[in-house]
Design goal:
302 residues, 47% helix, seven-stranded parallel beta sheet, alpha/beta, Rossmann fold, single chain, binds NADP nicotinamide-adenine-dinucleotide phosphate, three-stranded mixed beta sheet
Length: 302
């Protein structure tokens, strides 16, 4: 059964996180009822969503009954898993658990956050698991749309880091330095002429909300989400003019990345080779880096 009732709620997995948070907010702005799934309904991020009008629902991807209850009667489900938190095998298992529960709940429209350029990325763990979930979704019989964001511009603000949550929480206080780290990684990993494919988190929310509102135009679609492709020098210039900070290059970064964070090194090397992605673009303009920066994201004096 397909439930296309747009007055029915959309269940957002990961609603307290970076992508799900933007999806929940975009849906609420568009007037859709939102069920925000979280393991910690009493937490401040859940409270912020409730304040915006979402219904906060306790759900755990390991708990099938909680997922089915959260999806029951929903018109749609947004699904995201954090590879950097759980690794590839778990990402696939948890992504599959969402699909199983969605089927049991009657077959809502599943919008899945997948891997950029997934058809080319063999051996890139951060993308391969997402490709597996995408194949399972396409075979599931569920109505689906797959969004494939590139690197998040928001990482210039340390917003979405490829580290375990406990480390991310520690880094919260050092966001500006984390932006420098992001730039240093780009500078070390991208050849000067290569173009870094970039997406802002807000556009994950906008495209997901659009897909849910336009099922006839989005069923079966896979969209690579790229706002702009920039050389590292472009990104550094834009960062400096928006933040007032100078980009710093850290000696030994390329080697350090390969040794300390090989999965990140593999991902960035893949993106440097294949910034073009592989599927269609979404049917709306996405924010370029300059547009995103012009929106005044950088706090002054920090
Ligand atoms: N950084 C980039 O440039 C980039 C670009 C493209 C794609 N990606 C991909 O983005 C993904 C991460 O997305 P994100 O940044 O939105 O993650 P995130 O901010 O960590 O959000 C994930 C959310 O999922 C929820 N969650 C985690 N485990 C759960 C479980 N077992 N049951 C129920 N809920 C659970 C958490 O909510 P609660 O704790 O409240 O339960 C959390 O808020 C990664 O797979 C990465 O590969 C990253």
């Amino acid at each position: 059964m397909k439930n296309n009732d747009l007055t029915a709620p959309i269940a957002v997995v990961g609603a307290t996180g970076n992508q799900g948070g933007q999806v929940a907010r975009a849906l609420l702005r568009a007037g859709h009822p939102v069920r925000a799934l979280t393991r910690t309904p009493a937490g401040p991020r859940a409270a912020a969503l409730a304040q915006l009008g979402a219904t906060v629902v306790a759900a755990h991807l390991e708990n099938r009954a909680s997922l089915e209850a959260a999806f029951d009667g929903a018109a749609g489900v947004f699904s995201v898993q954090n590879f950097w938190e759980v690794g590839r095998r778990e990402e696939v298992r948890l992504g599959g658990a969402v699909l199983d529960a969605a089927r049991a709940a009657g077959g809502p429209h599943v919008v899945y956050s997948g891997g950029f350029g997934a058809e080319r990325a063999r051996g890139v763990a951060a993308i391969d698991g997402k490709a597996e979930v995408a194949v399972a979704l396409a075979r599931s019989g569920l109505p689906f749309t797959i969004l494939r964001p590139a690197l998040f511009m928001d990482d210039l603000l340390g917003a979405s880091l490829p580290f375990a949550p406990w480390l991310n929480r520690r880094l919260e206080r050092y966001r500006r330095q984390v932006g420098h780290l992001f730039l240093a990684v780009l500078a070390a990993a991208f050849p000067p002429a290569a173009r870094v494919p970039l997406t802002c988190l807000e556009d994950v929310g906008r495209t997901a909300a659009w897909a849910f509102a336009h099922p006839a135009l989005s069923y079966g679609a896979q969209w690579d989400l790229v706002g702009s492709r920039e050389t590292v020098a472009d990104v550094e210039r834009a960062f400096s003019s928006a933040s007032g900070d100078r980009a710093r290059h850290w000696p030994g970064m390329a080697l350090g990345l390969r040794v300390a964070h090989p999965e990140m090194a593999a991902l960035v090397a893949f993106l440097a080779r294949h910034p073009e992605g592989g599927t269609a673009a979404p049917p709306m303009a996405l924010q370029t880096l300059s547009e995103w920066l012009a929106a005044g994201r950088f706090p002054t004096g920090s």
